[in-house]
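Run folding on both entries below.
>entry_1
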Amino acid sequence: MTGEALAPPAIAMRGIEKSYGGVQVLRGVTLDVTRGSVFALLGSNGAGKTTVVRVLSTLLRADAGTATVAGFDVATQPGRVRESLSLTGQFAAVDEMLTGRENLLLIARLRHLAEPRAAAQALIDRFGLGDAADRKASTYSGGMRRRLDIAMSLIGRPPVVFLDEPTTGLDPEARIEVWRSVKQLAQDGTTVLLTTQYLDEAEELADRIAILHRGRILVEGSLEELRRLLPPARVEYVERRGTLEDVFFAVIGEDWQEEGRPATAGPDVDRTIRSSRS
């Protein structure tokens, strides 16, 4: 066994439950995230994705279960957990009155780095913000603001980064910019927990994917492992390879109609799978 195989996971959850006013949002969530990987938590709005992030980042206390981040218990060692992670929410948390460089310097000084200017410049270079570093953030495009937001979250080199629906509301070009930034994080060895409702985003970025539905993890695995949940392809004229979208709706398909969704959504997906699978 290698040292990496023996290393504890960067994030571990066991039987996490959380309710709001009698409504159970998380129902025994269990998962492991390997160090240095991108793990996508995929689910529809209201599935419980943000609640998972809030529990792991010590912003919420779970009703039951245990969780660790970077080896520290979120309930008994919240200070150590917060030192080990960075959280980027659904909206860019940049100060638009400051330049990109000033935003980075502000966070570097708040974190008491010995050389804040050097840290800021390194992130400017890493995220390709050199041409805009000394412009006010209010002049940035949506993708540039997101890149700056992610850069700010990396001040101090946290080993774990939570990206909670980082491309919500962005146009396609801006989404691709953010995707490049996430891939760079993974290449540099940062552990990334990505929550998203976009199937193509999980397919593009994640080493492993978990589908969260109604507060439960229904399936978890690599993209290829999830594709194997579908029946094998039968080649007639064109071979159609199963997508993550096929897997997602095949897994939650029965609940799709129960929730009052449009009647065409679930059956159409089901027919599509059947028509191209034996």
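>entry_2
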Amino acid sequence: MATPSAAPSIRLYVTSDLDVDTTIDLDTKQVHYLKNVMRLVPGDALLVFNGREGEWRATVTAWGRRDGALQVAALERAQATEPDLWLVFTPIKKARLDFLIEKAGELGVGRLVPVQTEWTSVRDINVGRAEALVIEAAEQCGRMTVPVVDPIAPLNDVLARWPDDRRLLFCDESGAGAPIADALADEVPGDWEVLIGPEGGFSPGERAAIAAKPFALSVALGSRVLRADTAAIAALTMLQAHLGDWR
């Protein structure tokens, strides 16, 4: 009996439906990545996923100058349920924002919710670039879904339409909250969001309004002043260690 070959290491996110013998037409960027960066040739295998139907082995069938195609062969992994974890954050300077978005994708965040606050210094976000970053993160880290990136909205509007059954981990830079490990000790898994403030922090009015919400759990991230991207990674890691898919 032949020994099954090891799964390919290259993963590609696609929007096409996936099934045995399905043909996937690639766009210019995907062709460039697979053909010129990864140096695949017709007959080479890779893994494809669409966030809905699992992860499949596929084979390169043809390259053109700007187009190409794959043929889906077999299911490698069934679609898995991932924790419904969201990150609410304010845009920061470009390099650090890219880092934050990429790492949030690697850490399993399912939705990125950018917000404007009173002291937000960067007032907008390039949603297209953010989507490209989370796709790359999902391809790299082996997750089966790609995070959703919301358009930016005022923090007050986001809080006003907050789902009743979703908890908010409010990272309060003032230090008024309980240490995060202590605060999470008695909490249970569920639908959570992590809220990180802008580089200048929340205004006193915003901090009081957030802390007063019944769905908010105010926590402190230690004695050191953390950059926004560092705080996001620390909070996501602690939440997952206590309640998420790291247990």
